[in-house]
């Protein structure tokens, strides 16, 4: 029996854990020599939302290979290297110009931890006792203690609840209730003497692919600006074209004070994250006094191989028709998902860019809905990598996925609606 302990996996259920040997484009493959192997599986969730251009994009692979020949790893406190510098320049060129500073870390969770620490450091430096973080109901920002603290409480973090810090939760802007959200936010900014508001723009991913309109995002941004509360945009999932634009925030015309990016930053090839900050946030830490520096690091901060992969990702965005691919995929998904709208067991159909989601058999039971594992097995038997959130089925493929593979995905979802 394997010694490997997998994430978000109940090993006691004895569910199969396939051994993946290689991947290409929108497909992953299990080894032909293994039991149950030799299968081609459609990666319909981009290997948990990270793979944007497809697996093993030649340019990203080449960039990492070339970088490995030169410099593998170097301490980043007090030292720098070309891939990190080039990536920062590239990000500055395509991200909102108000975000002038780039801080590296390793994952979406650490990008969020960094953002929260930057926000608190900002207020500390200004001599104002602001430390309350405002969060949106159903939000998800990662699985470290700080990231869990600002995320939705529930079965995922019940055991750790005593360690999580207090936040003020703003109700999700469900259709018809947007005004209540905005009023609650405006009130909390003042009453809580808030330091920052952290939010996933336009779509709450792990919370169930819950969408809300750009106008609400723009209004929330304006409320925080008026109150002087830092606005942290967690674009870890939504960034890099997922919602149809490079950043989801673009659709609302907003620029945050602090921006978190990870997942598609390297095209999904290797772990890397950035937290981009405004000049004001940087300035709060800029001083000749060493006690005011930004106290955060991890061993592999700005790993050169990861930075090289991200530089290649930027080149792909610049040189290849990525936006056209995204638009094409969005249209293809919208057509297929529209065919399911009238199915009697389907509710809540929604699409946003390359993301499509729906509920099978009504909602309400949450992540541990009994239907979830049955759906997972149903899709696995059909060689599809889909991982429903409870009875919310969503599709979020790499941008290179072909029409045949999409047909297979949607045919299986249709079948699941009939059969389960
Ligand atoms: C996935 C995700 C994270 C956490 O990223 P990890 O790399 O898994 O730590 C944070 N925020 C959002 C919105 C995410 O979707």
From TrEMBL:
<feature type="binding site">
    <location>
        <begin position="298"/>
        <end position="299"/>
    </location>
    <ligand>
        <name>pyridoxal 5'-phosphate</name>
    </ligand>
</feature>
<feature type="binding site">
    <location>
        <position position="140"/>
    </location>
    <ligand>
        <name>substrate</name>
    </ligand>
</feature>
<keyword id="KW-0032">Aminotransferase</keyword>
<protein>
    <recommendedName>
        <fullName>Adenosylmethionine-8-amino-7-oxononanoate aminotransferase</fullName>
        <ecNumber>2.6.1.62</ecNumber>
    </recommendedName>
</protein>
<comment type="subunit">
    <text>Homodimer.</text>
</comment>
<comment type="similarity">
    <text>Belongs to the class-III pyridoxal-phosphate-dependent aminotransferase family. BioA subfamily.</text>
</comment>
<feature type="binding site">
    <location>
        <begin position="108"/>
        <end position="109"/>
    </location>
    <ligand>
        <name>pyridoxal 5'-phosphate</name>
    </ligand>
</feature>
<feature type="modified residue" description="N6-(pyridoxal phosphate)lysine">
    <location>
        <position position="263"/>
    </location>
</feature>
<dbReference type="InterPro" id="IPR015424">
    <property type="entry name" value="PyrdxlP-dep_Trfase"/>
</dbReference>
<dbReference type="InterPro" id="IPR005815">
    <property type="entry name" value="BioA"/>
</dbReference>
<keyword id="KW-0808">Transferase</keyword>
<dbReference type="InterPro" id="IPR015422">
    <property type="entry name" value="PyrdxlP-dep_Trfase_small"/>
</dbReference>
<feature type="binding site">
    <location>
        <position position="234"/>
    </location>
    <ligand>
        <name>pyridoxal 5'-phosphate</name>
    </ligand>
</feature>
<feature type="binding site">
    <location>
        <position position="263"/>
    </location>
    <ligand>
        <name>substrate</name>
    </ligand>
</feature>
<feature type="binding site">
    <location>
        <position position="297"/>
    </location>
    <ligand>
        <name>substrate</name>
    </ligand>
</feature>
<feature type="site" description="Participates in the substrate recognition with KAPA and in a stacking interaction with the adenine ring of SAM">
    <location>
        <position position="8"/>
    </location>
</feature>
<keyword id="KW-0949">S-adenosyl-L-methionine</keyword>
<keyword id="KW-0093">Biotin biosynthesis</keyword>
<keyword id="KW-0963">Cytoplasm</keyword>
<feature type="binding site">
    <location>
        <position position="48"/>
    </location>
    <ligand>
        <name>substrate</name>
    </ligand>
</feature>
<comment type="function">
    <text>Catalyzes the transfer of the alpha-amino group from S-adenosyl-L-methionine (SAM) to 7-keto-8-aminopelargonic acid (KAPA) to form 7,8-diaminopelargonic acid (DAPA). It is the only aminotransferase known to utilize SAM as an amino donor.</text>
</comment>
<feature type="binding site">
    <location>
        <position position="387"/>
    </location>
    <ligand>
        <name>substrate</name>
    </ligand>
</feature>
<comment type="pathway">
    <text>Cofactor biosynthesis; biotin biosynthesis; 7,8-diaminononanoate from 8-amino-7-oxononanoate (SAM route): step 1/1.</text>
</comment>
<dbReference type="Pfam" id="PF00202">
    <property type="entry name" value="Aminotran_3"/>
</dbReference>
<dbReference type="InterPro" id="IPR005814">
    <property type="entry name" value="Aminotrans_3"/>
</dbReference>
<keyword id="KW-0663">Pyridoxal phosphate</keyword>
<dbReference type="InterPro" id="IPR015421">
    <property type="entry name" value="PyrdxlP-dep_Trfase_major"/>
</dbReference>
């Amino acid at each position: 029996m394997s010694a490997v302990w997998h994430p978000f996996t109940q090993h006691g259920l004895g569910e199969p854990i396939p051994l993946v040997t290689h991947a290409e484009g929108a497909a992953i493959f299990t080894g032909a020599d293994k039991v149950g192997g030799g299968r081609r599986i459609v990666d319909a969730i981009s290997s948990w939302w990270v793979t944007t251009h497809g697996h093993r994009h030649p340019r990203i692979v080449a960039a990492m290979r070339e970088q490995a020949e030169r410099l593998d790893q170097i301490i980043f406190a007090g030292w720098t290297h070309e891939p990190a510098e080039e990536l920062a320049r590239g990000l500055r060129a395509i991200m909102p110009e108000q975000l002038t500073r780039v801080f590296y870390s390793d994952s979406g969770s650490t990008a969020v931890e960094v953002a929260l620490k930057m926000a608190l450091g900002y207020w500390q430096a200004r001599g104002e006792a602001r430390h309350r973080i405002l969060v949106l109901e159903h939000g998800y920002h990662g699985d470290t203690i700080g990231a869990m603290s600002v995320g939705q409480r529930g079965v995922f973090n019940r055991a750790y609840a005593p360690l999580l810090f207090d936040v003020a939760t703003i109700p999700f802007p469900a259709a018809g209730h947007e005004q209540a959200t905005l009023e609650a936010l405006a009130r909390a900014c003042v009453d809580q003497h808030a330091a920052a508001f952290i939010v996933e723009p336009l779509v709450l991913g792990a919370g169930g692919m819950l969408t809300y309109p750009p106008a609400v995002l723009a209004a929330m941004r304006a409320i925080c600006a008026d109150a002087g509360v830092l606005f942290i945009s967690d674009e870890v999932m939504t960034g890099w074209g997922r919602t149809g634009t490079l950043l989801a925030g673009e659709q609302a015309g907003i620029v945050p004070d602090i921006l978190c990016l990870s997942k598609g930053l390297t095209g999904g090839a290797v772990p890397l994250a950035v937290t981009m900050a405004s000049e004001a946030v940087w300035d709060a830490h800029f001083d000749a006094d060493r006690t005011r520096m930004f106290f955060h690091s991890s061993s592999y901060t700005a790993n050169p191989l990861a930075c090289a992969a991200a530089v290649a990702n930027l080149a792909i965005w610049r040189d290849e028709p990525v936006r056209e691919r995204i638009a094409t995929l969005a249209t293809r998904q919208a057509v297929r998902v529209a065919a399911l709208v009238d199915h009697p067991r389907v509710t809540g159909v929604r699409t946003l860019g390359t993301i499509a989601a729906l509920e099978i058999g009504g909602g309400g039971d949450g992540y541990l809905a009994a239907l979830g594992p049955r759906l997972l097995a149903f899709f696995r038997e059909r060689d599809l990598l889909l991982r429903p959130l409870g009875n919310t089925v969503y599709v979020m493929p790499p941008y290179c996925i072909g029409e045949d593979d999409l047909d297979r995905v949607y045919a299986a979802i249709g079948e699941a609606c009939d059969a389960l």
